[in-house]
Amino acid sequence: MMRAAVRYSPNGNPFVSLFAISRFNAVITHSASAITPRDYSSSISTKGKPWVPKGFENVKCLDDALSLFRQMVETKPLPSLVAFSRLLKTLVNMKHYSAVISLFGEMQKLGIPADVFILGTVINSCCLMHRTDLGFSILAIHLKKGIPFNVVIFNILLRGLFAENKLKDGVNLFKKLVRENICEPNRFMYETIMNGLCKRGHTDEITYNAIMDGYCLCGQMDRARKFFDFMVDKSIEPSIISYSILINGYCRNKNVDEAMQLFLEISQKGLKPDIFTCNIVLHGLFELGRTSSAQKFFVEMLSAGHIPDSYTHCTLLSGYFKNGLVEEAMSHFHTLERRRQDTNIQIYNVVVDGLCKNGKLDKALAIFEKLSVIGLHPNVITYTTMINGFCREGLLDEAKDMLRKMEHNGCLPNNAIYNIIMHGFLQSNKISETKAFLMENDGEELVI
């Protein structure tokens, strides 16, 4: 997750380091190669007291700060990172943002390690200069140095994006942080989002939906609902998308009754639910094991004129299988087979997986072998499901045969498949077969 956060900019483009416009280009190249960090200490004193650079209280201008920095870097061992952090913050308070970035470059060049506080200060300076793009480049260093992510860093970047009127980028970054669980948004992050949008008059529905979606993904349904009601109070009519976001949030948080109540409200407001919204409710009912309600809801969907799509059928089938209703699942599947136009490899994958998990391996294999006859090609998910089914039943030779068939048909196995077979051997206590399999697949990245 963290890789994704720094590999792409909020607008989806790869980050481009802007250090080339200054000494940073040399700094990055140098730090990536042969820098050996210099020793530094947090307690350097002949009297055993923490070393604090003299003159901190006398830093009144940029020249004072630069002079103190030179004194600090010439000290052996180096002073603590707290001292460097304090100096950089002093420069920020004096609004010498470019000097902060320059000194950070010198620190990198000298091999002085940076902590989360120093990087936060530097990124904040970039944003205060309206150079959030440079701040994202520094974030790459953040990852490279192995420093843990911090919600404060992303608050700074979000504030910088909004200050530069990059509203879409800010909202997209916020949603990415929440969806990929990169960091846990706090109250300050939500306030940053709302303040950034409201100050620029963006209080329409692309705005509340984005914030509401973020709350739902965090499981903060009370706040999501408050936003929804706030829209109504502001005479902003919620669309079907607004309702779908909130319904999905309730379903994800196991509150299907509230989701159903909101679903019924849609028609009362003169809107018509789409198939996407119906699929959300159907999935939520099955997830809670309320199969009778799910079946009834599906019938009502059809009566209301909704045309099920592939996701609807996959949801219905997987819901039946998950709740042990194999006959109902197979009945619906055979109905789809007769129509032919409604079937694809995703639906067959759901059926094969459901049969395997319900102890019907022979039927799963029969359906698998029928795929080529009807013109469908198994994908890596199909093969993985069958191999896992064989291993679960202790049929390791059959699992290996399926692996060979997969390779023969030009579908490349992934690490997950090799791991499944390895675990199958180990669970069956077949040590010699395990060693033989390792030798056969020498070079594969197995994780046991």
UniProtKB/TrEMBL annotation:
PPR repeats lie at residues 150-184, 204-238, 239-273, 274-308, 309-343, 344-378, 379-413. It holds the Pfam family PPR_1. InterPro entries: PPR_P_subfamily, PPR_rpt, TPR-like_helical_dom_sf. PROSITE patterns: PPR. Transmembrane segments: none annotated. Keywords: Repeat. Signal peptide: none annotated. The keyword Transmembrane does not apply. It comes from the Eukaryota. PANTHER family: MITOCHONDRIAL GROUP I INTRON SPLICING FACTOR CCM1, TETRATRICOPEPTIDE REPEAT (TPR)-LIKE SUPERFAMILY PROTEIN. Belongs to the PPR family. P subfamily. This is Pentatricopeptide repeat-containing protein, mitochondrial. It comes from Nicotiana attenuata (Coyote tobacco).
